[in-house]
Amino acid sequence: MDTATISAWGSKMIDVCTSLGIKIVMALLILIIGRFIIKMILAKLDKSKGMEKVDPAVKSFLMSFFKIGLWVVVIISIISVLGVPMASVITVLATCGLAIGMALQGALSNLAGGIMLLMFKPFGIGDLIVATDAEGVVKEINLFYTVINTLDNKVVSIPNGTLMAANITNLTKEDLRRVDLTFNVSGADIAGARKVMLEQAAANDKVLNEPAAPFAEPVEGIPGGMSFAVRVWTKTEDYWDVYHALMEAIPTALGEAGIGGPLPATQIVTDK
Predict the structure, then answer these.
(1) Of 74-83, 119-128, 180-189, 199-208, where does mean pLDDT reach its minimum?
(2) What's the CA gap between 69 and 56, in Å, rounded?
(3) Residues 163, 151: contact at Cβ < 8 Å?
(4) Among the listed residues 168, 228, 175, the one whose alpha carbon sits nearest the alpha carbon of residue 198
(5) Alpha-carbon gap, residue 128 to 170, rounded angstroms
(6) What's phi and psi for 258, nearest 5 deg?
(7) Are 148 and 136 in contact (CB under 8 A)?
(8) How far is residue 181's CA from residue 187's CA, in Å, rounded to a whole number?
(9) Residue ranges of E strands in 42-154
(10) Residue 32 and residue 83: Cα distance in Å, rounded?
């Protein structure tokens, strides 16, 4: 190999490396600048007047959609700068379309589930729900997952597809809830026990008389006594206050009235 050939080859390599280096630098700049612009656009969009009027659940979903869309634009720009022919990229994606579709089957199911959740609105941001063995407050509904904070402050992400197919109990959607309690007492003074329970329910200022007055009735016999069901209505936000207050007040009042718990069962032992 003569000197001229080596020189030409070296010059060509320098040109290729220089061109490739410039493309890589440009791609990195697009990535950095694009990331900054995406954050800025999302921040302005989040604080826009239009978004303020949107339901929080829909807003969370749309923000996830816009974020993914903007990143797709950045990635396409990077591919273009690197000199990869878009026709080739499209051909490869079309060739791998079936495999990609199979791989994304779960993701597409979650995406469709998210859309259905926003359409039918079984819950919204801030609602307390029970679903798929998890109970907590809904914090976010994004493209693929619904995020809830459990009552002991754990973060649980539930796939939207799974959530849409599950039974969902919304504990805070309605303004009123009924508090159901059970107390076991001796069967000696049923009327007295009923009176004490109703008095304690009436004494609680968070207990409502609508849609129904407080209820206290024996529902079944148990060994040595009766089982009473106490049912009262209250505002949803007062549910646990009323629950704990009555759980303390009723047994205390029953004891003060001389009404005890079920009598111990009598066991007869015979000699064999």
Answers:
(1) 74-83
(2) 20
(3) no
(4) 228
(5) 6
(6) 80, 15
(7) yes
(8) 18
(9) 128-131, 134-141, 145-150
(10) 19
Lowest mean pLDDT among 96-105, 125-134, 180-189, 236-245: 96-105
The DSSP 8-state label assigned to residue 122 in this structure reads S
pLDDT by residue (tens digit) across 194-217? Answer: 999 999 999 999 999 999 999 999
Q: Which two tokens stand for residue 47?
A: 């604080």
Instruction: Give the pLDDT confidence of 10-20 residue by residue, as tens digits.
Output: 666 666 667 67
Chain centroid to Cα 102, Å, comes to 27
Q: Which one, of 46, 241, 237, 242, lies nearest residue 137 by Cα?
A: 237
Q: pLDDT at residue 173 above 70?
A: yes
* Residue among 137, 134, 229 at smallest CA distance from 181: 229
pLDDT digits (tens, 9 = 90+) for 151-171: 899 999 999 988 888 899 999
Token couple for 223: 């060994």
The whole-angstrom separation of Cα 118 and Cα 57 is 7
Q: What is the pTM of this model?
A: 0.61
Rounded Cα gap, residues 42 and 173, in angstroms: 30
> For the residues of 42-65, what is the DSSP string, one character each?
HHHHHTSHHHHTS-HHHHHHHHHH
- Tokens for 266, please give them: 């009598």
Q: Taken in order 157, 161, 164, 165, is the CA torsion positive or negative?
A: negative
Cβ neighbours of residue 82 closer than 8 Å, sequence gap 6 or more: 23, 24, 27
User: In whole angstroms, what is the distance from residue 93 CA to residue 99 CA?
Assistant: 10
Q: Are 118 and 153 in contact (CB under 8 A)?
A: no
DSSP 238: G
